[in-house]
Design brief:
Layout (H helix, E strand, L loop, with lengths): L10 E3 L1 H10 L1 H21 L4 E9 L16 H4 L5 H11 L2 H11 L15 H8 L11 H12 E5 L5 E8 L2 H59 L10 H33 L3 H5 L2 H4 L2 H20 L8 H89 L10 E5 L12 H27 L3 E3 L14 E4 L2 E4 H13 L26 H11 L16 E4 H10 L4 E5 L8 H12 L4 E5 L5 H6 L8 H5 L5 H4 L1 E2 L6 E3 L6 H4 L6 H11 L2 E5 L17 E5 L6 H15 L3 E4 L16
Parallel strand pairs: 9-16, 10-14, 10-15, 11-13, 11-14, 15-16
Antiparallel strand pairs: 1-6, 2-4, 2-5, 3-4, 7-8, 12-13
Length: 756
């Protein structure tokens, strides 16, 4: 080609040349930075120094248990509740109110200071802005307005985050004034808060005096109505503040209950006597009969007589006088006993009649008292209403009297402290806060160095001296030398371009990529430099294929075979997350691993296909554009994971192509390859690694213990396939399976081609 220019895609930035311009220009950069720093020093020296001081105020409830109003009904904890955020924010606005600022300005005589615009004069720039209509004329405002405006500009009042502390900060050219203004503002604020509390107490006292007099009159009237109504309704009260009919009803009801109990007991005894009538034994065993002392003595006499009669019957006959006398005595005792039992029955009957009569009289009295109590209840409703009204008026009067006494007692100045206190007063500053000479000079020096360095880098970049041909870019053997070459917006002279072309022509040419060889077979890079021309040439010669047709003979070793569908099912059902394919037959055989990856992807698993071949033929068949970042870009630290993963055109499989970086350079970081593959394997269900034509020793970094090592072949009986299987088994990989598109095939003739 006759065109000697590189396209934009054929150019790279030479970082060494680019940053080398900084080293070449460092004296000029340093001199310019120092000059700018000196100008900054002069400008800062001309600025009037400003001093700043601050006063800190704590917002808190300062009421003590001895000065707190007792009528609030609050406990010590509730009454001393801390102010909330809104309260503190409100106090910030109060501190910056015009009334306080105006009082401070008058007290400190700020209207006589030029610093606060008392004269109304402005500088040259201010006059120009006034003439242009961009600024108002300060002389048209009053002195007080100008002073307040300047005071607000120099004043800063804010709340410390997460606290109840308010900071009053002021800046001035006079250090003493810088401390006096915030202290005066804080003092005026505290005095205003105390005055506000005292005014509140005075207003409360003035309002309570007529209200108390009116309440006293209403209380007297209400209590008089209660007494008058009680006398008219005859509602005399007894114990427990009960009216007499109600109290008597309660007492008579109690007596009636006892009378009914007595009557019930007498009826029970009478019923028992009636049931025992006709049986002397049962009558004698009645509790009332047994309780009679006469009956008890008669029963004792009867028992003694019966005992004597029994003793004498053993020695005397029945007609013996003594025996007849005892029997006569025994009959008399029985007659007397029956007489006493009859008297007991008569007394029980009399007791029952008395109990019934008493009960009847009590019932009549209860009915009378019920009617009287009901009538008293109707009158009592109205009486209670009058009493409630009188009680409410008295309670209100007592509360007003308590508040009035408290307000009168708190009229003293010290009894109403402000809910704030100054805990850090401003002191006269001895060091100006502006300008900070060290900070300004450091920022000027650092900023000027950065800006000038960026300018130098951009100049070097736009001039074209920092550009170089990209790796693999087309370089003509005999470049046409013109008067001027244009390169990305920059320019270079013809002699300089001739020297560059001469260097490129004399440099060793990049070896052509052998077809379907593995980048794992690339020579290791030296730690201090890239691979030399001899290394690359020897590698190219060793990897160069022959275009001769050769007859493939069947070796003695026969590897085990499996179809694409079979190995896909095995990988889906097995535990191996990585399958390493070696394709000794060339580009055509790499289609086997592509078919396996697509078969697994069609089953719904997440599959990643990694192309480690030299030519990139497998990924070329899967991607629309084969010149995309891939594994070599990642190894060379020129891409990230997100940049090298692409989607297959015909399945859901993800593909990492071989990449665009020279494999010889990329394999300088071959020690990172196992870590990269492990990280990718953790993110996918199955990872297919196509290594191309390589040997058992070269796949040691990619075929870990858990990986499945497979041979992709079109003719599993080929000499290369069988020899590779034997080599893998001898190396320690065991019986390696050979994957074919559809099982064993016939022998065929294989043609090799030169690498493009």
């Amino acid at each position: 080609m006759s065109d000697a220019r590189h396209t934009t895609s054929d150019l790279d930035v030479d970082l060494g040349q680019l940053f080398g311009s900084l080293a070449r220009s460092w004296p000029r950069i340093l001199i310019a930075a120092l000059a700018i720093t000196a100008l900054a020093f002069l400008a800062a020296s001309l600025v009037t120094p400003l001093y700043r001081a601050e006063t800190r105020i704590l917002i808190e409830a300062r009421e003590s248990p001895y000065t707190r109003p007792a009528s609030t009904g609050l406990t010590d904890t509730a009454a001393s509740a801390l102010p909330d955020e809104r309260t503190v924010a409100s106090q910030v606005e109060v501190l910056g109110s015009p009334d306080i600022l105006r009082e401070v300005a008058r007290g400190l005589g700020l209207g006589s200071r030029d610093e606060f615009g008392a004269s109304g004069e402005t500088g040259m720039l201010g006059n120009l802005l006034i003439l242009a209509g961009l600024k108002g004329d300060p002389s048209q405002a009053s002195v007080e307005e100008r002073v307040l405006k300047a005071l607000r500009e120099k004043l800063s009042i804010y709340q410390v985050d997460g606290s109840r502390v308010i900071v009053v900060r002021f800046a001035s050219q006079d250090p003493e004034l810088a401390a006096a203004v915030p202290n005066a503002i804080a003092d005026a604020y505290i005095a205003g808060q105390e005055q506000a509390k005292r005014l509140t107490n005075a207003d409360a006292s003035e309002w309570l005096e007529p209200e108390i007099e009116d309440l006293r009159r209403r209380v007297r009237e209400a209590e008089a109505r209660v007494a008058e109504y009680r006398a008219q309704a005859g509602l005399l009260t007894g114990q427990n503040n009960l009216v007499l009919p109600t109290q008597e009803l309660a007492e008579i009801s109690t007596e009636l209950s006892r009378a009914r109990a007595d009557r019930s007991a007498a009826e029970a005894r009478m019923a028992a006597i009636r049931d025992a009538t006709g049986s002397s034994d049962r009558l004698e065993s009645m509790p009332g009969v047994l309780a009679s002392p006469i009956v008890q003595r008669l029963r004792e006499n009867q028992a003694q007589t019966e005992a004597q009669l029994a003793d004498l019957s053993a020695s005397l006959l029945e007609n013996h006088p003594r025996m007849r006398a005892l029997r006569a005595q025994l009959d008399e005792t029985g007659r007397q006993l029956r007489t006493e039992i009859a008297k007991v029955r008569t007394s029980v009957e009399n007791e029952l009649a008395t109990a019934r009569a008493r009960e009847d009289s009590l019932v009549a009295e209860v009915n009378r008292l019920k009617a009287a109590s009901a009538q008293a209840g109707d009158s009592e409703v109205e009486l209670r209403a009058l009493e409630r009204e009188a009680l409410a008026q008295r309670a209100l009067l007592e509360s007003y009297l308590t508040r009035y006494r408290e307000a009168a007692a708190r009229a003293d100045r010290g009894a109403a402290p402000a809910d704030a206190r100054i805990f850090a007063r401003a002191t006269v500053p001895h060091e100006a806060y502006f300008p900070k000479m060290g900070l300004i000079l450091g920022a000027a020096l650092a900023g000027s160095l950065i800006v000038i360095s960026v300018v130098v880098l951009l100049r070097e970049l736009f001039s074209g001296r920092a550009m170089r041909p990209a790796a693999g870019a087309f370089v003509p053997a005999e470049p046409a030398v013109a008067e001027h070459f244009v390169l990305d917006g920059g320019s270079a002279t013809a002699p300089e371009r001739q020297e560059e072309w001469q260097d490129e022509r004399e440099a060793p040419a990049e070896p052509a990529r052998p077809e379907t060889r593995s980048i794992l077979s690339a020579p290791a890079m030296r730690a201090e430099d890239d691979a030399g021309p001899d290394d690359v040439a020897q590698f190219a010669a060793a990897m160069a294929p022959s275009d001769e047709e050769e007859e493939v003979t069947m070796p003695r070793y026969t590897p085990d075979e499996i179809t694409v569908a079979g190995i896909a099912d095995r990988l889906i059902e097995g535990d191996a997350g990585r399958a390493v394919f070696i394709s000794p037959e060339g580009d055509e055989a790499t289609a086997v691993s592509v078919m396996v990856a697509r078969e697994i992807a069609d089953a719904g698993l997440k599959v990643l296909f990694v192309d480690l071949t030299w030519s990139g033929a497998p990924s070329t068949a899967m991607l629309e554009d084969s010149r995309q970042p891939g594994i070599t870009n990642l190894l060379a630290a020129r891409a990230q994971f997100a940049d090298i993963i692409h989607g297959d055109l015909f399945s859901g499989c993800h593909v990492i192509p071989a990449g665009t970086v020279d494999p010889v350079r990329a394999m300088r970081s071959a020690d990172r390859l196992p870590e990269i593959l492990q990280a990718l394997e953790d993110s996918y269900d199955v990872m297919i690694v196509e290594c191309g034509a390589t040997d058992a020793q070269s796949i040691a970094d990619v075929a870990e213990d858990h990986a499945e090592v497979l041979i992709g072949a079109l003719d599993p009986r080929g000499a290369g396939v069988a020899g590779l299987a034997a080599d893998l088994e001898a190396t320690g990989y065991g019986a390696v399976l050979t994957v074919t598109p559809a099982g064993r095939q016939a022998r065929f003739r294989k043609r090799r081609r030169f690498a493009a």
